Amino acid sequence: MKGGRLVAVLLLLAGAAGAQPQGKRNAVSHKPFALASSGVVVQYERYLAERWSALAGLGARRAAREDFRSVTLSFVSEGRFWLSLRDWASDYRGMAGPYLSVAADAARTSVTYVPTDRDVGAAWRIQESLRFGNRFVIWNLQEITPAASLDVIHDFDEQGRLAPGTRTTLGLDFTVGWVF
């Protein structure tokens, strides 16, 4: 019985993925504000089915000063539902205009004491988000996407020495990239 359900789901997904969208099916973008904090995030988005797209990306950031060094590596993922498939400002049709999304990001930060090259520890951050955003497409190529989100952030120490924490916050996001 489980095998039959799995086959049905796979057939539905294959049929949905075959839906032909208007406009371009791919986007590559980065988060320019990450550069201000010695970091970079690059992400790729693919149009999957009518009104649905998926996004995945990688990021890295270095921080800490003086006697310490820290490195954060991150993975970002997001599923988007496009509300209109049309940019109201430029009339571009495709992965554009307003959207709702669910995102999950994971990041690991490690800290090193530089004089002795000793590993101080590492921590993880898992972030779940509900987002509302809008993609503007300029010249049928350049994309600019601001978004607002409600985030739940979970922080925990890899060794279990510090108490884990969870908090809710409002967030803003901004990406710049290209559709193709």
Structural class: mainly beta
Q: How many β-strand stretches?
A: 8
What is the CATH class?
Mainly Beta
Calculate Rg over CA atoms.
19 Å
Largest sheet: 8 strands, antiparallel, barrel
**Gap from first CA to last CA:** 41 Å
CATH architecture heading: Beta Barrel
How many domains? The number is: 1
Q: Give the % helix.
A: under 10%
In round numbers, the mean pLDDT is 88
Unreliable stretches? 6-19
Tally of DSSP helical segments: 1
Order of adjacent strands in the largest pleated sheet: 1-2-3-4-5-6-7-8
- Could you tell me the CATH topology label: Porin
Beta strand %: over 45%
Question: What order do the SSEs take from the amino end to the carboxyl end, as H and E?
Answer: HEEEEEEEE
> What spatial form do the alpha-carbon principal axes imply?
elongated
Molecular structure report:
The structure is a single chain. With 180 residues, the chain is mainly beta. It has a single domain (25-179), classed as Beta Barrel (Porin). Helices cover 9% and strands 62% of the residues. The chain has one helix at 2-17, and strands at residues 26-30, 39-49, 52-63, 68-82, 97-113, 118-138, 142-157, 165-179. The protein has an 8-stranded antiparallel β-barrel. The chain is elongated, with a radius of gyration of 19 Å. The model is unreliable at 6-19 (pLDDT under 50).
SSE blueprint:
Blueprint: H1 2-17, E1 26-30, E2 39-49, E3 52-63, E4 68-82, E5 97-113, E6 118-138, E7 142-157, E8 165-179
